[in-house]
Amino acid sequence: MAPVKKGILERLNAGEVVIGDGGFVFALEKRGYVKAGPWTPEAAAEYPEAVRQLHREFLRAGANVMQTFTFYASDDKLENRGNKLTFTGAQINEAACDLAREVANEGDALVAGGVSQTPSYLSCKSEKEVKAIFKKQLDVFIKKDVDFLIAEYFEHVEEAVWAVEVLKETGKPVAASLCIGPDGDMHGISPAECAVRLVKAGAQIVGINCHFDPMTCVKAVKMMKEGVEKAGLKAHYMVQPLAYHTPDCNCQGFIDLPEFPFGLEPRILSRWDMHKYARESYNAGIHFIGGCCGFEPYHIRAVAEELAPERGFLPAASEKHGNWGAGLEMHTKPWVRARARRDYWENLKPASGRPQCPSMAVPDGWGVTKGHADLMQQREATSQDQLKQLFDRSKTH
């Protein structure tokens, strides 16, 4: 029999570094398996080979958490705004669990089942109705016996608390991450207070994912940690940021950037930026370190390589990557061989190659959140009249 793997809390309690995977919806959209807009994970059932391969690439890069590709897989999101499906939410979630478990068993990795924010919450459905959505997803995770649970990508701490309260009923370890920055959630509740509420609700791991760049997310997690410690509580901390630079974002993050989602490539972080992110996270006391939208396997490999001294090993993918560009020593051109050194890559300021490209953007700031008429969701497709109203309004912002 294979040895029993240590659980997530055992690893974190022992001071180990746990590395998450990356942003599946963005990665698979670029590969042609996910539709931007809905951002739903039908690919787990439609194109399992694509999802399986991406899991394997993240595992090879050093990730030891395989998060089920169940982002936005609640029925109310799967059926939102005319999205047509050939699979049920349960079928998608079951397929995602099977794929994650298959690949996790190929290494020393754990499977995390994830739930995220719901259109029903934005449309002011009741706590009972929203919790029922989480419970339906949770039934699949229990059936498939995932190793731990994540409530991720929540803009409102109230909804995240509801999710944690449902997830903790299983007795499995629960992590909770909000897609907020240092300014707090969409109602202005500070990261510190958000973290305290999540820990009191039952989350053993709290943190930040998505919406902002790594250093912004780390800053927000530091605020969470300070709040939890000040309240006399205990928790572990996680961070899974964007792989995009977002210094010009407002409180709602990169979705307000004019470049979202199809023009973000000039903002992508390099592998060397990821070394800085990994070290900053570890030094801040964050030991569950991964990525979200924009993260590709080579980004996770960079995180794993930076933290190899703490982990005691390099990821398998490092066999094809020289430390700090050392592989360039074998290049045919001498000026490229001269780049085979750490100080070159650490001090490089990459050019965009776009002479007319501004260094910063002006985010869209419509200033609406839960309860506003603009955020009431619907099952039927967005009409042309509704789109025209949005097009006209966007001209005034």
UniProtKB/TrEMBL annotation:
Recorded metabolic or biological pathway in which this protein acts: Amino-acid biosynthesis; L-methionine biosynthesis via de novo pathway; L-methionine from L-homocysteine (BhmT route): step 1/1
GO cellular component labels: cytosol
Needed co-factor(s): Zn(2+)
InterPro entries: BHMT, BHMT-like, HCY_dom, HCY_dom_sf
Record-listed Zn(2+) binding positions: 210, 292-293
Location of the Hcy-binding domain: 6-307
Origin: domain of life: Eukaryota
Entry keyword set: Metal-binding, Methyltransferase, Transferase, Zinc
Subunit (UniProt): Homotetramer.
Protein name, UniProt field: Betaine-homocysteine methyltransferase
Origin species: Seriola dumerili (Greater amberjack)
